[in-house]
Amino acid sequence: DGGITQSPKYLFRKEGQNVTLSCEQNLNHDAMYWYRQDPGQGLRLIYYSQIVNDFQKGDIAEGYSVSREKKESFPLTVTSAQKNPTAFYLCASRRTGLNEQYFGPGTRLTVT
Amino acid sequence: ELKVEQNPLFLSMQEGKNYTIYCNYSTTSDRLYWYRQDPGKSLESLFVLLSNGAVKQEGRLMASLDTKARLSTLHITAAVHDLSATYFCAVDLDNAGNMLTFGGGTRLMVKP
Q1: pLDDT score of B1
Q2: Please, what is the end-to-end C-alpha distance for chain A in angstroms?
Q3: What is the pLDDT of residues B2-22, one digit of tens each?
Q4: Which of A52, A92, A103, A108 has the highest CB neighbour count under 10 A?
């Protein structure tokens, strides 16, 4: 089955540690996205990538980093510089030429 | 800065009733998306609206877009309990499917 995989579903870290969230898709989509969702709020765009080895900052990129070495993978690193990292993180992908983004199941990150 | 406002933020309604959720946005865009989110889950795409006057219907839900008024509506007809969820609109800032700005969501509860 084609789809987007995010792992792990729940992630716990101590403050000051970097943590990397995984996002893999086998939909052969060119574009991939990372969003953050805080309780009771909408999604905010962190980073996106339209092609391999290229990515752009979204609205809230500070404290985050990404890489796009393979078409199917777009990992997100939450660095210690991110002031409030606890949130629900959603990855999405989109096929070039189509408008719709498809979302993965999400990773809930808790930093204490 | 693009602002996307949904109202109401919370809606409790009886089964069988009709209601409309509104999504207003502050800058020019020809593309708007509606998503559904169940508690603790990811987002499910409902509608993609790509031009002024676009209307899409699926079951008891109908979405429309008025780009001149910068307004989209999601109309619920004869609500049923299964429609209980949070609904988000998202405006496509670059009209290319990349820069989505989400509204804060409307939490819908349909009571038997």
Answers
A1: 79
A2: 36
A3: 899 999 999 999 999 999 999
A4: A92
The per-residue pLDDT for A98 is 83
Strand B55-58 vs strand B61-66: parallel, antiparallel, or unpaired?
antiparallel
Which residues from chain B sit within 8 angstroms of residue A48, using beta carbons? 98-99
**3-state DSSP percent of chain A in helix, strand and coil, to 5:** 0, 50, 50
The DSSP string of chain B is ---EEEE-SEEEEETT--EEEEEEESS--S-EEEEEE-TTS-EEEEEEE-STT-EEEETTEEEEEETTTTEEEEEE-S--GGG-EEEEEEEETTSSSS-EEE---EEEEEE-
More confident residue, A100 or B74: B74
Whether residue A31 lies within 8 A of chain B, CB to CB, comes out as: yes
Kindly state the tokens that stand for A68. Answer: 């796009």
* pLDDT value at residue A28: 94
- Answer yes or no: do A42 and B105 touch at CB < 8 A: yes
Dihedral of alpha carbons A58, A60, A38, B3, sign? negative
Q: Which residues of B touch A103 (CB under 8 A)?
A: 35, 42-45
